[in-house]
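Anyone? Bumping this.
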Amino acid sequence: MELFIDTANIDEIREIARWGVIRGVTTNPKIFAKEGVDLRTRVEEILEIVSGPLSVEVTTNDPAEMIIEAQKLAAWSKHIVVKLPMSPAGLEAASVLKNKGIKTNVTAIMTVNQAMLAASAGATYASIFYSRISDLGHDGLDVIRQSAQLFKQSNFTTKIIVGSIRLLTQINDAALAGADIITVPYKFFPALAYHPQTELTIQEFLNAWQGTKTLA
Ligand code: E4P
């Protein structure tokens, strides 16, 4: 299991990358729009910090345009993964791009059937949106677990990314359900690291050390 960070904010990426815990970055047009920066400039800044997969999404629903956008994005860096919508057009583009050697991430997956199609089309990654599945009254964890089982028994090489994380507990739940990658919003990283009992214990040790005469 690997952790990615789900943001295009450079300060957030820099801070968490220093911990040595993130292997890649995911973005989407909404995440990028929030930053209000030039896309290519920010992509280059991110890749200076994290030299791993960086998902950047196409901004069209037309398959031919998706392929053109994807080729432009992929030419920027070997680390670019082109995010495509889960749709007939997105599947068509994923299939063409696989044959061109361009890595893809089929996104906004809500069902096992959609995950199965993404893998069958040859997507490098399939992004299952945990909380957005729950928003519809379904169990996101079931979708993750069943997709992971299906990919394993079908020998699909497509990796499952779990996104749309809104609760801390979803991170370990998704990992244990078989996600290959969890893409985590920035705010959860400090929360993952923190425990009050850890803080108290470390402080207790530091307090005990104060005033000792044993320092060399
Ligand atoms: C993942 O790749 C997406 O960027 C992200 O997790 C979407 O989740 P949300 O819009 O439900 O927060």
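Late reply, but here is one note on the structure posted above: The radius of gyration is 20 Å.
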